[in-house]
Amino acid sequence: MLPNRFQETMETSHHNHQNPAFIGDDGRSTASTVVISSNSPVPGATAAGRDNADQEAGAGKLSEERATWGKGVEFLMSCIAMSVGLGNVWRFPFTALDNGGGAFLIPYLIVLFLIGKPIYYLEMVIGQFSSRGSVKVFDLCPAMKGVGIGQVVSISMVTTYYVAIMGITLRYLYESFRSPLPWSECRSEWESTCVASSLGNTSKLANNRMDMDMPQQQPVASAELYFLKEVLHEKHDIIDGIGLPNWELVIGLFVAWLCVFLIIRRGVKSSGKASYFLAIFPYVIMGVLLIRAVTLPGAADGILYFIKPQWGKILDPKVWYAAVTQCFYSLSVCFGNIIMYSSFNKFGHNVHRDAAIVTGLDTITSLLAGFTIFGILGHLAHEIGTDDIGTVVKGGAGLAFISYPDAIAKFKQLPQIFSVLFFLMLFVLGIGSNIAMTSCSVTAIRDRFPHFKQWQCSLFIAIISFAIGLMYITPGGQYMLTLVDFFGASMIALVLGIAELYTIGWIYGTDRLCKDIEFMLGRKVGLYWRLCWSIFTPLIMTVILIYFYATYEPLTYNDKIYPGWAYSIGWTITAFGILQLPVWMIVAIVRDPGRTLGEKITGAFTPTKNWGPLDPLLREQYHKEIDNELTPKRGQGVWPAIKQNIFG
Question: Considering the entire predicted model, what is its pTM?
């Protein structure tokens, strides 16, 4: 086992001393992953200085009460349930569709290798090493605490519309029990261009119009009209407001939040048990739907469009920006979720293995979802009689609620079964991801205010988020969803993600991070990780951000410009998230006990005295070793320090 290997490496220079506080992945007490000198001073003696007595008492209380995963596999399953979600099944296909199909795959895979995977492993490491949530983890650099707070603000906004989508999913799940499926047939009040999704062959309709000397119009599937007119009651614009919530979707939103609350009310003890079903069940259904999709006529053309690169698109920086944001959504990096989940791990758990499994599986799932939906789009194009896959259906959330239902309506035998399974899968995926997002906010609050109980925080966040989520189930809800997604998620996550990388890679130090990993896992960190954390990942993200602001264009929904008040709301949301960074930096500098301004600034950018492993014995040993390791090249100049930070 990994802890034993690490212990063997330490025996050459220290005398072993077992730490009964360490619990292995099997839930049993085992030897510590590090060795403690028999002459060690009283545990916790180093936790002095900048941290006052109240902070120490609070930290001690938190240490005793902090929960851990029942088994290591629960952490892995929870990460899979978190990362494999609507971002794969809903967002990835339409992002690829909007960015040239196959042209998007190459930037996405490159971004995954240079950005997604390194950040995922990085966040797993610092969360597990410190046993701190996404805000408190910035004890490694108190001046940058605003990064964690801003990420909680961002993920809280994502949570509100994420569950609204799940509410719509529940509406479809309920309707899936009807025969025939309500979106499979046209209704009299819809346009004359409506074509029943259960039939799908529109060639005769087009020929009839031509024979009658009527102007030929693009046929519209009943599944699309059902989504727009019956489910959303969508407005043409929101100049005069977004309207009132649809009561049927209000019920779905309430049920979705009730499910989330019931699962997280006891923390990782309850969510860990649910993770097995949340992680595994969707793959069973996804396999069935994939097999059905690829057997539809015309599916091969859609899949070819998905995997065939359009080389002109690859050079478009907007495609690379889309790849970065999709990577953020798909893996949930730079939102604080991963740090939060890994903070409940046992010290010494093999997160290197778990990071490789989750990032690899997430990519495979995105590709499978892409094959499925582009196979369906190819079939729709075949039925409509067009060769342009990109014009078959609009992107956005409608892709999952139009293309999939349209394909299911064409099933000749028991389409209700496939519909129920699909929307149940979509709901389970959404629940798995939302548990992580909501738990991130709960953990941030409880790390700061430990006296609040888990269920109290969970209920508070669920009620507030439910109230905000009503906005997304109005006739103008999709306008607002797109607005909050852009200003509250994409822009904030990118800026704060860059700040997080520079903080850990250069202020805290890549070299120190690698030594932390060696201390915790007993394994050397390869050059790939060092180069990504210190150079490639932050540099690529910085270039993407600069280009985005240089070429910024006003956000649109269905090619419609938002009214001025909507843009004001959007920029206010972005500013509120990003300004957490300078505000809390000033607070940290002011609060630092240094006597001069220089001392205060230096202290605010230095890890707190109690930074390190949660266990006081491990932390004592860690501080001794890290001081010895980092001392040799201090004070030798800038270039030696840079070289040491990158290469060790």
Answer: 0.84
